[in-house]
Specification:
Elements lengths: L1 E5 L2 E5 L3 H30 L6 E3 L3 E8 L5 E8 L7 E6 L4 E4 L10 E8 L5 E11 L5 E11 L18
Parallel strand pairs: 4-10
Antiparallel strand pairs: 1-2, 3-5, 5-8, 6-9, 7-8, 9-10
Length: 168
């Protein structure tokens, strides 16, 4: 029984028995649907069928570095899946970024490394990507290097060129 109030007057609306029964059925069906969808979503999130990358970091920030300094950095990752991870190819976004892939497969639970060497002979900011192609559940994975290459610091004292004859 539903009671509605209209301007200080009560009006009783009686719904037929079938309507109440239908509403209960709809409510139960809705509840079961929402419950099963949420359970299915959680199940998919925890399933790791096949090899899966887990990087310590997907972006390495060189920060501010001097021109011609060491540009090699290492991305460390773990195979958290249940099958061997085989990296087919690693490719830099340009010729100034040269990645090196691991040679053999990375077994489940093991860690691997991808070395990336950036050519620090170019002055200015950079942001480059490395694309990894593998047999992982995410077959194409992108990692990134970024930073700023600074001009080398010059001496504040102006040096006088030495004479070839007198060596002064």
């Amino acid at each position: 029984m539903i009671v509605k109030h209209f301007e200080n007057k009560k009006k009783v609306v009686i719904l037929p028995f079938k309507t109440i029964k239908t509403m209960k059925k709809l409510a139960i069906i809705l509840f079961i649907s929402v419950f099963s969808i949420s359970m299915n979503a959680q199940e998919k999130a925890t399933t790791t069928d096949g090899p899966v990358f887990e990087f310590v970091t997907e972006t390495i920030d060189y920060g501010k570095i001097e021109k011609d300094s060491d540009g090699e950095r290492v991305f460390t990752f773990k195979n958290i899946g249940n099958a061997p991870l085989i990296i087919d190819k690693v490719k830099g976004s340009c010729g100034c970024t040269v990645p090196t892939k691991p040679e053999g497969p990375i077994m489940p639970g093991e860690t691997g490394e991808i070395k990336v060497k950036y050519a620090t002979n170019r002055i200015g900011g950079f942001s480059k990507t490395v694309t990894i192609t593998s047999n992982a559940t995410e077959p194409r994975k992108t990692i990134r290097v970024k930073g700023i290459v600074l001009k080398p610091e010059t001496s504040s004292v102006i040096e006088k060129p030495k004479s070839v004859i007198s060596n002064q």
